[in-house]
Amino acid sequence: MTNNDFLLPKSFYLRDDVVQIAKELLGKTLVTRQNGAARKGKIVETEAYRGYDDKACHASNGKRTPRTEVMYREGGCAYVYLCYGIHHLFNVVTNVAGKADAVLIRAVEPLDGDWSDRHPKTKTSNGPGKLSKAMGITMEMNTARLTGENDIWIEDAPDIVGTSIVASTRVGVDYAGEDALLPWRFYICNNDWVSKK
């Protein structure tokens, strides 16, 4: 059951600074519900993508396709897409409708026990594809609201004040020219669940 007392408010997602939101999502709790049971992970790694002038963004400079249409919705919904025909990648749409900003959630730290049933031979959630598999995130969750109406949501958590946050370039966006050098990947320093670049 969703506890509305802990949900991130809609206003969190509607702000216009996707880079700041990507930083502030660190430490928050990503929750999915499957067969009535909740699975929770602390967000430990994110990447920001800005629709209007970021060549690494799927919706760069107003590009609209059936896949990216969800990015133009009002912030606070899920953008899930299939990468390489294999991995489901989960993004948080931000900003007001029409802006196409989003934050890729790259890694979470399990908060509710052993997840080895999902990835028995490797860490379960230290990468965007693995975390989606571990948390049951699929294309069925694309466009889902993250504010408690669906089986995926984000809960607030104590600020990670005093924790070192590392900024680096994003992963796998070399095609984006100078935008590939933007330091818009953020992760919690020395956390064992951060993905390897």
From TrEMBL:
It holds the Pfam family Pur_DNA_glyco. It is an enzyme of class 3 (hydrolase). One of its GO terms (molecular function) is alkylbase DNA N-glycosylase activity. Keywords: DNA damage, DNA repair, Hydrolase. SUPFAM superfamilies: FMT C-terminal domain-like. Its EC number is 3.2.2.-. Signal peptide: none annotated. GO terms for biological process: base-excision repair. InterPro entries: Formyl_transferase-like_C_sf, MPG, MPG_sf. Belongs to the DNA glycosylase MPG family. NCBIfam families: 3mg (TIGR00567). PANTHER family: DNA-3-METHYLADENINE GLYCOSYLASE. This is Putative 3-methyladenine DNA glycosylase. It comes from Reichenbachiella agariperforans.
